[in-house]
Write a structure and sequence with these properties.
The protein has 382 residues and is mainly beta. 11% of the residues lie in helices and 32% in strands. A hairpin with a 5-residue loop joins strand 17 and strand 18. The radius of gyration is 27 Å and the shape is elongated. About 7% of the residues have low confidence.
Length: 382
């Protein structure tokens, strides 16, 4: 019989397959079981085809191993299975995947053909806390110019497809499931830094990591942008998702261990914040490129430009066109102007000659129904 190692990915063999190899016997109660050396009994038949990972092994003799399995899908039952009742689908070495890519790494999509748009079972099994952000059924707006953070790594149910990576956009927070062939880690720090240093004053950006904000670095303001001293939000940290304009940055000769610092001015309040270059994402101003709202489709990212265009009482539209989102629609308040949302449904008003959009916040699960006049399409890149 085949021997295994801790960490191997296995599948429980089919009953007929084991019966053909080992034979069967019937006990006094009339139940059929697999013959020795297999320990598979009638009560375990529902396990056939299940997959899991070996967590421990007891060796009772030279050939027989007793395997403790961590199942891929939630199961309360715990069975110890012999090595004759399972088959290898992915070795421990293969399960490690691309050793150069780990959770927390920044990667770029190089081929969106390797993105899984409808594998929610994997997400629920390995990264359930990101399930609400999983970009089910659509692709990111653009590919290799958008940075993503790896948030989960686990093998595909079919070993042929290798390791899968759940990656999260550093700007929109939407998550995508992709094979390792479809992503690439940017290891060249100098190259990455040079891309960041190309961000010019006046650029529109979105704060993506509030931990990269320096709320009390008033000396930097005095040295680099004294004209903004009065607007510096001393001691305050902006929320992630805040849209700002770049108004100043550290001179290249002064960049040190932590890279270049930028002074960002809140687009709504004019408050200024000092942020490291890894704490925000560059957003393309697409006002001219996307004036025609007929181009907005389900899956697009949009910005709310007029929250007074929402429909706070049109529940019939939601129940008819997007019932799966009915429990998430917020009727008692409006969406926030200048915040980013994802279009999850689109359909005509029903009475008026207008197109309505159901939009979902990228920072929560809140949904709003809004007229096409209240949003504009965004294209986001780093």
């Amino acid at each position: 019989m085949q021997t295994f190692k801790v960490g191997d990915k296995i599948r429980v063999r089919q009953w007929d397959d084991m019966a053909k190899e080992y034979g069967t016997y019937t006990d006094a109660t009339g139940k059929e079981h697999i013959c020795y050396p297999s320990s598979f009994v009638q009560g375990m038949k529902y396990l056939c085809g299940r997959t899991g990972t070996i967590t421990s092994i007891d060796q009772s003799c030279e050939d027989i191993q007793w395997l403790q399995i961590e199942w891929d899908k939630s199961m309360k039952e715990h069975w110890v299975i012999d090595n004759g009742s399972v088959e290898l689908i992915q070795s421990e070495e293969t399960c490690k995947g691309n050793k150069d890519i780990s959770i927390g790494d920044t990667v770029y999509i190089i081929d969106d053909e390797y993105i899984y748009r409808s594998y929610a079972d994997w997400v629920m099994a390995y990264a359930p806390k990101y399930a609400a952000y999983y970009a089910f059924s659509h692709l990111p707006d653009s590919k290799n110019d958008v940075a993503f953070t790896v948030v989960a790594i686990a093998p595909h149910e079919q070993s042929f497809f290798g390791m899968l990576y759940l990656i999260r956009s550093q700007c929109t927070r939407a998550c995508y499931l992709v094979q390792e062939k479809g992503i690439e880690k940017k290891n060249n720090t100098a190259e990455t830094d040079s891309k960041k240093l190309d961000i010019d004053e006046g650029a529109c950006v979105c704060i993506t990591d509030s931990s990269k904000v320096y709320p009390k670095f008033s000396q930097w303001i005095k040295d680099n942008a004294p004209e903004y001293a009065e607007q510096f939000a001393y001691g305050q940290i902006p929320k992630e998702g805040t849209h700002c304009y770049v108004v100043a940055k550290t001179k290249p000769t002064l960049t040190g261990l932590y890279g270049r610092l930028y002074l960002l001015r809140d687009r709504d309040t004019n408050a200024c914040y000092i942020v490291r270059e890894k704490g925000f994402a560059f957003m393309v101003d697409t006002t001219a490129a996307y004036d025609n709202n007929s181009k907005i489709c389900v899956g697009d990212m949009v910005e709310v430009v007029d929250n007074q265009q929402t429909y706070p009482n049109y529940s019939d539209w939601v129940l008819f066109h997007a019932p799966e989102y009915a429990h998430r629609v917020i009727y008692e308040k409006e969406p926030v102007n200048q915040n980013t949302y994802e279009v999850v449904a689109k359909a005509p008003h029903g009475v008026r000659n207008a197109m309505l959009y159901l939009i979902k916040s990228v920072y929560s699960n809140e949904c709003y129904l809004i007229d096409e006049k209240g949003i504009r399409k965004l294209k986001v890149r780093i």
